[in-house]
Amino acid sequence: MENMLNAIKDMSLDNAHYMGKYDSYKKKLNKMLTSVSTQPTSAQLGRIKVYYQLIDLFGEKFVKGMGWA
Description:
Helix content: over 70%
Number of helices: 3
Shape: elongated
Largest sheet: none
């Protein structure tokens, strides 16, 4: 637990921003997926695809910023 707290403490502001955006879009995606019926509209499908792309984008930026890739 202490190692995780130290990693958060030493994280740059950019990486904290990327992590926050990643979490935000992941929550929006989960909310969208739980509210979609068995036959989603094209607008809902489009929004779901965008959320997946944004999650990938901010996840990748976070990983690169942390020096893991």
